[in-house]
User: Fold this.
Amino acid sequence: MGKYDALVELLLAVVKEGGDIKEADNSIPVGVSNRHIHLSQTALNTLFGEGYQLTAMKDLSQPGQYACKETLTIAGPKGAIEKVRILGPVRSESQVEILQSDCFKLGIAAPVRLSGDLDGTPGITLIGPKGSVILSKGLIVVQRHIHMTPEDAKRFGVQDGEKVTIQAGGLRGGTYSNVMIRANNASALECHIDTEEANAMNLSSTSKITIVK
Ligand SMILES: [Zn+2]
Assistant:
């Protein structure tokens, strides 16, 4: 297709979609999460020393969230996993988000939960450079979810707390159900899945999905 033809096609698309390309785009960027740890300041003090401050390494797409230079070893009755990344800032409660296959390595069956929903979850041992912490709860496999603003929710016709089905294209594409909508003003539009879910459908952090409901 020549340059001119491409331009004509683009203009036609603009006319067809009411003059706004952005509005017509209903795709949602994918964010892929590997296993990671959120810490309370109390746990951070024990693991790294009193008053320790996390070292921000890379900003994440959700406002105010960042990956830290610091990592920890997590240990269960069957085995340990080294170099698990800490995400900042510190939270009121420590939480460890692992992959489904990590449950076998560690010997602990973690339930699928939304971040922060920790009642009745199993604990795990965290090992840092200055000490270790035995968490009595907080080990989860995170439930896939989509962050968005209330304006995005209106645009997609969904509500905070609603579960939707998402569709991925490509040769390994398919659908995932039970994807929780998390709509609030502190969010940026992004669908969060873990590395196992991403690999299963050959998705990466440059991929996009759509909601099919
Ligand atoms: Zn998320």
About this structure: The chain has six helices and 15 strands. The helical segments are 3-16, 21-24, 41-48, 102-106, 150-156, 195-200. The chain has a mean pLDDT of 92. The first helix runs from residue 3 to 16.
